[in-house]
Every structure is written in C-alpha cells, then in structure tokens.
Amino acid sequence: MKKDEVPQDDANLLEGKLREPCYALDENGKYTTVKSVGWDPKNVIIQDAWKAVNEKIEYTKEQVEEGVLSPIAYYMEKQLMDVSILAAYTGFFRWTVKRHLKMKHFMKLNDQKLAKYADVFDIDLPTLKNKELL
Amino acid sequence: MSIDFQHTQSAHCENGVTSNLLNFYGIKLSEAMIFGIGSGLFFSHMPFLKVNAIPVTSFRPLPGVIFKRAARRLGFKVKRKKFRNPQKAMDELDLLLEKDIPVGMLVGVFHLTYFPAPYRFHFNAHNLVVYAKEKDRYIISDPIMETPESLSYQELQRVRYAKGTFAPKGHMYWAHEIPENPDLKSAIVIGIKKTAKDMLHIPVPMFGAKGIRFLAKQVRKYPKKLGKRKAGQYLGQIVRAQEEIGTGGAGFRFMYAAFLQEAAEILQQDWLNDIAREMTETGDVWRSFAVETARIVKGRSKLEDAYNQAADILMDIADREEKIFRKLEKINL
Fold it and tell me: Which residues of A touch B297 (CB under 8 A)?
C-alpha cells in the first residue's frame, strides 16, 4: 500500500478519539506511517459484528419482558459479558450466575446479592430491583 | 514531579510500550524493529478455540511473547509483579513512580474510559505505561492513543483488575537492567529465524503458512455448514483480527515489511529489501481478502462462489508467505 492510498473512510467508529497509524510506502518505496480514520471494508465488518451484539441484547430484552429471563441476563448482554466473565466479576460460581439469569430465581435474590450485580453493571440497586432495563 | 517520558503513538500496544520504555532509557528502536526482533508476525487458526462462539484467528503470538523475546534478545532485564490485593498493586505502583521509574502494565480495555466505545470489549491483554502521578491522576502513555491520557485511582485500579480471559491481576513490569550497547544485528537475525521457523515448521496444521491453507479449507465449508448469517460472522472475525487497531494494516504484514527494510540497512543485506517488497504485496492481497469479505457481509455476492473466491485468496497468500519465509530462514549475519 502506498502512502496516498491509505484509506480515510470515517464511520465514526473511533469517535474522533484517535487516528490509527497504518504502515505504507512513501515516494521512495520506504515505509512510513500514515494516520487513518478508517477503511470501508473494516467499518462494514465491525458494524456487522455490533449488529449481531445488538440483536442479542434486543432478544434478551424481550425474554425479560416475557418473564423468562432476568434483568441480570439483559445487563450481562449489554455489558458484552458471558457467564464466566460475570462470575469472575461478582465472585459467584458460574452455575449460580446461570440460575440468576432466570426470572424465577431472580425474584428470590436478596439485596446483598443484587447489590453485587448492580455494582458490576454500574447501575443503582433500585434500578435492578425494579427490573428497569436501561 | 515529572519525568521526561516521551510518548510516541504506535500501531500495536505491546511493541509500542517496549519501544517507548527503551527510548526512555536511551535505546532508540522503532516499533517495527521491536516487532521483528520479538518475532511478532505469526498466523494461527484454531476452530475449537472460540470467543463469543466464533473461532479465533490470530496474526500474532500470545500476548506478552513479543515483549519477552525482544527483551531477551536485546539483553535488557525486566522485573514483573502480580498482586492478589488491588490496593497493594496501587501502592507499589506509587512507590515506583516516586522513584521516577516508568511502569508498564497489563489492563483490560472494557473499562478504559478514553477508548472509543465501539472498540471497548473484554480484551484483557492491553499494554500501557504509567509514568507520573499528578494531582491524584495517573499520567498514561497508551501507545494506541495519539497523546498521553490520564486516569483516576479508581479507574486505573478497575482496568488493572479486569476479569475474564487473561485477567491481568495487577500485572506490572519495569526495566531493571539496561544494556549499554545491545547487539542489534544478532537480535535481528535470531528474530527472523524464529519467525520463519514458526511460519513453516510447526508440525500442526493450524499454524503458519499451513494454518492459512487450513483456514482456506474451512472457509469453503462455511456457507453450507453455518448458513448465511453465521458464515458471514465467522469470515468477518478473521478480518477483524487482521485489521484490528494495532496491526498497522493487513495483519501486521506491512509492519513486518517495514522491519525488513530497516534490517536490510542495519545488516547491509540488500536482498532483504526485495523480500520486503514481496511482503508488501502479500499485505496487499490480505487487504483484498478484507474487501471480498466485506462484500460478502454486505450480501452483494453469490454465496458459494464468494466463499470459494475468498478461500482462493487465502491459498494464494499461503503460497506467497511460504516462499518468503523459505528464503528468510536462510538468513545469516
């Protein structure tokens, strides 16, 4: 890739926080770095990956509203976690976390346990208790 | 209190931290140089190892390996520490900063506040350097960012104790013995030989040039085996690893070519410039693989043909890289 071929296709995936150095050839065929804000094919693929994540969040939300899954399941998806990551953050066993993902077990949880989840998810305890899905 | 730590942005965090730390101690080596000496170029595809239910393809060795190899080959010594107690991890950091020692550390990116949101997921092997504490904020040289950043005590502690795969557990490291005149030439040769060996001779089909062919075979099966949506995600994951922040484009291939150009000059071996040219071409082919994949993801091409075409590109790349490293493995001082 030559210096003037480094793509600058901005899809705001970097939110203006940085530009990425790309290695490219200068006029003399020597390598240098050029800062790039993005590249179309890459943007398409990253956006597609996020679409899949968001679909899963939406699906989980519906399941919570139907009373099958618990708000913990929703926030877990929203924080891009899986059961083992959430277990590591809360200190609960994986099988315990798995139970808490179901609404019927969630209803029996005490404040102390809920507070642990709320803390990991960066939300207030009442929000979680009231099954608000932010 | 502040030290004269020069922050330079780099493509990849691990090379960047190494390069910035060495620079602080008076050894000026580019990111590409560190990458080459540390044998940073690699390929692996392990279908059974999954992240978010998608197989992992990687263009680099495991996190930490590049740094470790570069340190060994250049002869500088590093002290490392992990802590069970988060508060102790922060206290020890403060002690080192008081002594004006810049400290490298591993962190998770999910809670890294200055990172762009679309890139914040549970990846725990990100490297950065903390080099000062001013008014209760830690001054951070994060090689991915263009300028230095800062984090509060809580924010830093949180990313140092991220959980999940490769949980950093407060892991930090700092230079402890710096060589006067590192033997650059032999470090380069050792680095190239190791990369060639890993790209050609690992007796398992999932690594190196063989690994690329193995992936090509899998890709041909994707549309039938997985269906349209999932197949697109599998293919997309390869390109994400290839063009992720930190690769410098084309799965580090351009960065490696840059290294070969520098090596040609230092070793006075002009043929390495020719190899750098071939490596650049290979990088360009990797980019065309990304273009093809994006077309598939957007749903603009006929399915089965498109996956075969993507696989053909991969086979072409495998041949090119095999040829390159067959030549490179014969390098001598």
Answer: 44-45, 48
